[in-house]
Amino acid sequence: MTRGTRLRLVLRDVASGCAFASMAVSGQLPLWTLGLFAFALVAALFGKRLFARRAKLTALLLLGVAAVLAVNVTSGALNLVVAACAFAGLISAHRLLSAPDPATDGQVHLSGLLMVAGGAALSGELVYGLFLVAFSVLSSVSMALGVVEAAVPEGEPIPVRAVLRPLGTGVTFAVAGAMAFFILFPRLNWNMTGPRAAPGLGPATAGFSNTVRLGGAGTIKDNPRIVLRATLSPDPGVDALGSYWVGRTYDIFDGMEWTNAGGVRREREPLLTLRPGGDNLIHQRVELLPAYGARTLIALETPSRLGNAVANGSTGSRRTSLQELAGGEARFLEAGVSYAYEAYSLPPGGSGDSFRKLPSEEQDALLALPEALDPRVAQTAARVLNGEREPLAAAQKLATWLQREHAYTLEQNGEREDPLADFLFDRKAGHCEHFATALTLMLRTQGIRARLATGFFGGERVNDGYVLRAGDAHAWTHVLVPERGFVTVDATPPAHRPSQGSRLLQRLLGLYEALESRWRNSVVDYSFRDQVDVARALVRPPKGAENTARSRLPPARAWGAALVAGMVVYAAWRLVTRLAGRPRPHAATRFVDAVEAMLVPARLVRGEGETLEDLDARLARERHPLALALAPVTRRYLEARFGGRPLRQGEADQLLRALQQSVAAHVKLEAQRARASEPRARAS
Amino acid sequence: MNQPARVLAAAAPSPATARTAMERIAAELGRAVQGKEAQARLVATCLVSGGHLLLEDVPGVGKTTLAEALARACGLSFARVQFTADLMPADILGAQIFHAQTATFQFRPGPLFRQLVLADELNRAPPRTQSALLEAMAQGQVSLDGSTHALPSPFTVVATQNPVDFSGTYPLPDSQLDRFMLRLSLGHPAPDVEAKLLATRGRAPPLDAVQTVSSPEEVAQLRELSAELRLDGTVADYVVRLARATREHGDIERGASTRAVLALGAAARTQALWEARDFVTPGDVRAVLVPCWAHRVLLRSAVQGVAARDEAAHLLEELTRKVPAPR
Lengths: 684, 327
Known about the structure:
Shape of chain B: globular
GO molecular function, one term (chain B): ATP binding
Protein name (chain B): AAA family ATPase
Order of helices and strands of chain B: HHHEHEHEEEHEEEHEHHHEHHEH
InterPro entries (chain B): AAA+_ATPase, ATPase_AAA-3, CbbQ/NirQ/NorQ/GpvN, ChlI/MoxR_AAA_lid, P-loop_NTPase
Low-confidence stretches of chain B: 1-9
Domain AAA+ ATPase (chain B): 49-192
Number of strands of chain A: 20
Largest sheet of chain B: 5 strands, parallel
Number of helices of chain A: 19
Oligomer: heterodimer
């Protein structure tokens, strides 16, 4: 096997591996198919074609595999699309291990295409895109080498280097062309039947369940995945927002976990009004990223109105209704990978909720205590408060005491019979849920109404908006203050409220999330609408220019863009002409092209490697009737091309006309002869 | 019979007159060795290009006759040296002879000091003698005992060797083969020519029929004209590409040298004169490619002699089909 052939096969196999990887990144293929393919690929790369001898017999193995997959599909263990993708991968594996003849090569490339299509159905993520490009480049190069190999006579070396250079240029152009095509023609979203994996690294939060349980597992405070992006107006303009973003509240504590009274309040609301707003509402345009992994809406404390929600799923984006649950929780009715919505919140200072408007069971719950509450809790609260009855002042006094006397720790203490007493009196250390629970219940023992709130704390400035990370998840206390409604009091030590993750990891993840979001917005979900938006952004008058005199001409931006586009086109044209590198054909070369085209009707065609000079000499040897007519033309061509005596103005036409006449006469004569011989042939 | 040659010698030749002169020479060669017109033309081409000629053939096909006929047709002084195993360099170069009367050494030139030297069966001489000859071919002069003696002009060597019988021979090294511009083999004549020979040969030796139709001066002029012909840049590039193709070819151990490239250019120029052209075309290059390069490329395969030449010729012809000619 020559080096060229080996290179071609390695490229082919690696391309096939890339195609398989484009499906595998979805994480949905069964593990055993991954193993089988990896084994086949490694064996093929080492040149071990195990199935070369028994191609048909080993094809029976595929039947067995198909049966296993079919059983999995019918039993519901495997999605049909996933099974089809896995099968395509195994066909490819079988072909990789077969003898490398042209038919097998074609089948490997074809199965590669199938796998890439499968990968598109299964994920379509950034990593998929990278594998897709790698597959296209490698298999194009491999196929081109195959074509060259077929053209080179047996036993001769394949001019790999000479081929790879123009091929590399060609592939670069093809990839660039594909990108240009992609930008010019928006992607059509079609409904794929296959399930899409949660993109990227998967959800990062435990989500919002209907309960908060003390002890056991909780949200990890150092997870730096970004779960939410929001742009606020009016823009606070600070780097660290330090605000509370509430998800839901809880009012019943049974000694172990927090729950709510009541169920679904309102179903299918396009716009959810939780409480009346005032003049100075804060508007938020919020995007919940795939890492969020829950359906609960998040908004700055205290949310007033939520709406305009869009769920982005595998089949594109669509509007979704909201529902209101107990605890002031708003949920998307339909599940998506990520969400976008708008929210209005009251400025901090109190929710404005009137106690009397709350449902009666919630009113009761705000003072309820678990049956088996440790009596020391009430005693300690009374001791710390020392007669303070004003709710807010009491809450702050207790919070200060908690922060002073208790340490913050992320280490879970495991399941305890009474986690609250354990936190307050034994361990004297815990995380935000312990602090918030302790404060809430201590207030209640003193007859002050309070509840637990969960959500996020913080807000880190990125570009024009703020992001929240999974580690920003937090719990705090709402204290009911007459005339003001619920007021936030946080018992957790301030240093431990926002995310605690490492800076470097946060940066790296931020970069990944930004790339992922860019890919999602400008590749996967890129649509005709986005194109129109880009075009509109160019011609729309700049912000703040409404007051200046309006002009009918497009703004300077449009002119600039047109200029840049023109320059890019010009540069591309220059590059293409330079890369093509061919000087304009010599006048004599164009002449000889015309001569040769003229000779075709007389069935005079150059042989392989034959020039017009050779053809002329051959005709002269054969005493061909056209030799006489061709000789002066050939002579003149040679003079013009190699003798430094260029063709004069109109000389080429003159010579060609003369030759044309001779050729026409010759063809006519031949036709007459053929006709003359025809009847005789029939008669005989 | 020297008349037309003198007339020609007076006026500077044009491509058309050069063709006539060369055709005359070739016609005389054809009288001596019948039925070998193509080879006769190549012999004339080699002479006009200023190169040396290697004739490889079995004995008895007219190699020696052809060389003698060339000398006679062009009016060149001629010497024939039969190369044998005991031939020493002094036997061909000449020697210093002591004159008793004047008590001095005097140089007595050897047979090499002729305008046309036939080195018969060159490969039978020991390498020392071979290299003495080949050095003289390359330099155009002989250095002996510290003094340099110029060889006459034009100076052409026609060497012959038997490509089949290698017993008792010293095969020419490839570096030496490279010094011959063209290599030819005559091959057996066609049956009708052989029959005609039988009928006529008895009457007169073939060389008697050859007349002097040219002169050393005319040959020198033709050489000058040939060297001045236009070789277009694209054609030069074509020659270089052909050379590169031989160097990169998988079956060729060593491709054409730079000397081979120059020789091909010179031979192609003279080839253009046959068409009375004052410029070289790719067709001219291809016409002389095989006689010019077949003996210069070293093949990877182990074949020797005639078979090696045939295979080389085959490879070169294949290259002319593969390497695109300028259009």
